[in-house]
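Can anyone check this?
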Amino acid sequence: MSDEMRGWEEAYREGHTRGREPHEEVESLAVLFREDGVKRVLDLGCGDGRHLVRLGALGFQMYGLDSAPTAVRLAGGFLEKDGLSAELVCSDMSELPWDDGFFDAVISIQVLNHQDIDGIHTTFGEVHRVLRPNGWLFMTVATYEPDEPGDGDKLVQLGPKLYAKKEGHEAGVPHYFATEEEWVAELSAFQIVDVHKDGPGKTAILARKAS
């Protein structure tokens, strides 16, 4: 198990989750998805399933992937409690186990920045591959000012622009320090629909795979 996977697994075992409320834009995304005939949705980095549960309840066919076995187990439990189902996979993001063009939409909330630049390139390539033409990508990521790690001596540098916290429930989990502009540039294979702030130090991006 990689350091990243180990860090998230320990966090979920210790009960450190983002809470059960889905991201505030999920409801508007659901409206957008319905209007475009979206059926299959992948939550990339699904955690313990808060978005799987909400979008599943709204009628979408949900799929979830997370690197932490405990998170996947919890997601399955929350889905079952609400009488819902989803295909759940425990894996990293480097090789998605679905066919080309399988999904109508992919969402990923505060996940993609937890890997190095090579992993980011690989993940975006995989997301592009599994999306149908004109498929949707909604992602939120942490963003930083250029060359500003932010937490000073609370961080250890793992590589170029890559840091990990020394303590707390995200200890050892990598954080890639990129600006909003750099994230947009990484999505050159997609058509950018919208970019906006998602709270302090966070950016939300809505994009589509080119037809």
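Reply from J.R.: I decoded it. The beta strands are 40-44, 61-66, 87-90, 103-109, 131-142, 155-159, 162-165, 174-176, 190-197, 202-209.
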